[in-house]
Amino acid sequence: MPLDELLDAVGRVALEIRDGLSAHRGTETGQENPSGERQLAADVWADERVRARLLDVPGVVGYASEERSTADVHGEDADGYHVAVDPLDGSSNLATNNPLGILFGAYDRPLPAAGRHLVASGYVLFGPLTTMTVARDGTVSEYLLERDTNHTPGRLLEQGLQLPAEPTVFGIGGSAPEWQKPLREYVRSLEGRLKQRYAGALVADVNQVLGYGGMFAYPQLRSRPDGKLRLLFEGNPVAHIIETAGGRSSNGEQSLLDVPAERLHQRVPVHVGNSELIEGLERALAES
Ligand code: AFP
Questions:
Q1: Average pLDDT, whole number, for the chain?
Q2: 140 Cβ contact list (under 8 Å, min separation 6)
Q3: In this predicted model, what pLDDT tens digit does every residue of 264-276 receive, in sequence order?
């Protein structure tokens, strides 16, 4: 099945990238990506690798990434999977050897497209273990990625992952003085009940929400009314994973999966986690 082949290809290229990280550490390109952020040599290298491997998969006809300004569509026929990738999510963590990973979503139509058109999404986490978490067919599964294994896309660690009912952690990007006042007050109401933990890489911050229950947000900031994260490459895949695991996502008003996608590199405020926390946050923002 093409989707299985796509996931298998993500797993294989992830191991190549993990092996090449130390060689690409610390090198600047002096360039910016299409969102105007500093581009590291590791970002460009990972993007080339992932693009080549994924466009080789039968059934994958389009590739878009945070690192290139336009989508790459192969052939005349637009039917097939259009893959949106953050090839090295959290790459600034490479300098300090903190966790980072790969984020991806496979859409059934040309990009940009809304998250409702995702047929699968997932992330690879380069942590103490290299794991791949995938949402497809209404189920979230976690795989261990290892070399020399017969398992594809990896050794199954868990199937049917659901957010724990009792949340324990939260992490919020940006600095508190930059948040809207209702968000600051909402966060204050969580303190004491939840523990604050923030990795600075979306894959790691979402992974801990999936494991412990809680909330992650990269909200609207005074200096960035649309937040920092990109809808196609970051917001949609994590929303799809968290919603499939029984949680909720929001741009502050509605599910991220319903946010119309107008531009490839469009930013969006991201809030994901246990339903009661995201509903509480939406209420707090609406009352402002
Ligand atoms: P980098 O890829 O530049 O490290 O950015 C990572 C990221 O896009 C996302 O993975 C994090 O959630 C967010 O930015 C962290 O941003 P701050 O550095 O502002 O905390």
A1: 95
A2: 133, 134, 160, 161, 162, 210, 241, 244, 245
A3: 999 999 999 999 9
